[in-house]
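Exam revision sheet. Question 4 asks you to relate a sequence to its structure. Input first:
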Amino acid sequence: MSSASKFDFDVLIIGGGSAGYAAASATARGGLRTAVVEGGREVGGLCILRGCMPTKALLYAAEVKHLAGHAATWGIQVPEVRFDFAAVMARKNAMIADFAGYRRQQLESGRFQFIRAHARFVDPHTVELDNGQRLTSAHFVITTGSVVATPPLPQLSAVGLLTSDDAMTLERLPKSLIMLGGGAVAVEFAQFFARFGVRVTLLQRSEHLLRDFDPDAAQVLETVFRREGIELFTGACLLDASCERGLKHITFRHAGQTRTVSAEELFHGLGRLPNTGGLALSLAGVATDERGRISTNARMESSAPHVFAAGDCTGPHEIVHVAIQQGETAAHNILHPQTPRSVDYRVLISVVFTDPQVACVGLTESAARALGREFIAASYSFADHGKSMLMEAKDGFVKLLADPRSGEILGGACVGPAGGELIHEIVAAMTKRMTVGELAAMPHYHPTLAEIWTYPAEELAGAVAG
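Answer key, structure tokens:
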């Protein structure tokens, strides 16, 4: 693309989070005149500021507290476990400030132009900034992320809700809390609050938590939550919300009965929506679905061929490493239109950082059945595995899915200790299209958590050979 282009930029990226930075780095490295426009109050993106990093810092603190409180299991005497919530939050804040500062340095490095402003389209190749300036570009990459979804009942907003964004700035813990939702954000925060002494009630519309996982994975987490004192209602339909005498009340339908629960705070864990409302996308010819999600193909192209999108604003998976992959794919296809790439979701990873951790890669049993894909599956329990028994980490299992004829691994799940780490063995295996026989034959050190994968692999290898 010539520097004598009639446009101000070759590529203009709207949004400076993980997807936007990945795209900008790649196009700038490829020699294109690149700009990033970021209008958020803070710089860094959801993952750094209010998502992956701060929540995992808080969850790890809760896990350390939990282990200290159960130290007698290993013969360790800890007379009293106390905590300083302000210190927990201060450590999290310091770490996030460091991460965000590094990202800000990257954005301001001079490799591309970094503009602090909100942008909206006025025509297919022009955006207007909120300072009145207009910029033109040959290509655009939209990476504006997501915002907390609107509550399903207007009464909820009237009563007042905490969100995952609000939780990052809490100065004190409530005595009690009602968690609305059963996805990753909801269950992670539910366990965090419960382990810090908050009385938690969780209401979930689906019959199980974590509906994107198989029911057997959800059931393990439900058992642990109830054991840790979380009051859990699945299959709940919200009816009303009110506030009286300093408490917030939720009325819902459950198992054919109308019930009411009360708590000091409500937590909105019902998901997020694409942050595309103020972009005037229709003026650029960019189509969205009913939720505002930008419609793209596997090349990350929108309905306007010069406009690409990546990350939470397009989906279909709101996961930061996927957002980065999408941003890099968009950049490649702008740089090399004659040799385009597509994003491959075959080796899609999901991890929920509860204790036990819940992780999967590739196909679940539910997804395989929905696709009409033939498979064989085998599981093995952590309760019967040496290393996890030593750790007293006996909740959960590992599971493998394989092609019944070739033995190729189609998917894996791990509910248990270090599940987010262990799943990467199956990620590596699936990336190289290994069979269960090859995985079973691969050496594993004893005693390790990782050797648990050999048991379902050996079972499935025998079934394929038979």
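Marking note for examiners. The CA atoms of residues 183 and 211 lie 7 Å apart.
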